[in-house]
Amino acid sequence: KLQIWDTAGQERYRTITTAYYRGAMGFILMYDITNEESFNAVQDWSTQIKTYSWDNAQVLLVGNKCDMEDERIVNAERGRQLSEHLGFEFFEASAKDNINVKQTFERLVDIICEKMSESLDAGDPAVTGAKQGPQLTEQPAPPHQDCAC
């Protein structure tokens, strides 16, 4: 089941959105390529995600509005460099012209599934929902010497 939450990235939503971070397995952190301020906010949002989300949450950094090349302020190389610094994958997209929108969501789902599969293979209790308890063995219990059964 895939749920998508659009928090708009505005400061007034910051305290509300942290409540949603805990259960989220993936994030698309988006900035506007025509707006330097939105690009500069990426670092703060990244910190929020790392602080409040699951340790294995996957993040994609997306520069939106790539259809507005004439108004571009943030070049693709800066976006790529920031994504590498933060350890995120990088896309440029245009929601208006439907450029890389589907690919972005598909990639996020793919990397979430890959991470879940790795965690399941490793027996990660955060993914399996299992609680750590005593290890069970196949060895029978030693017989009681003083039992008159």
Automatic annotation (TrEMBL):
Topology term for the membrane: Lipid-anchor
Known catalytic reactions: GTP + H2O = GDP + phosphate + H(+)
PROSITE patterns xrefs: RAB, RAS
Alphabetized UniProt keyword annotations: GTP-binding, Lipoprotein, Nucleotide-binding, Prenylation
Location in or out of the cell: Membrane
Source organism, top-level taxon: Eukaryota
Region annotation Disordered: where it falls in the sequence: 123-149
Protein name in the entry: small monomeric GTPase
Native source organism of the sequence: Nothobranchius korthausae
Gene behind the chain: RAB3AB
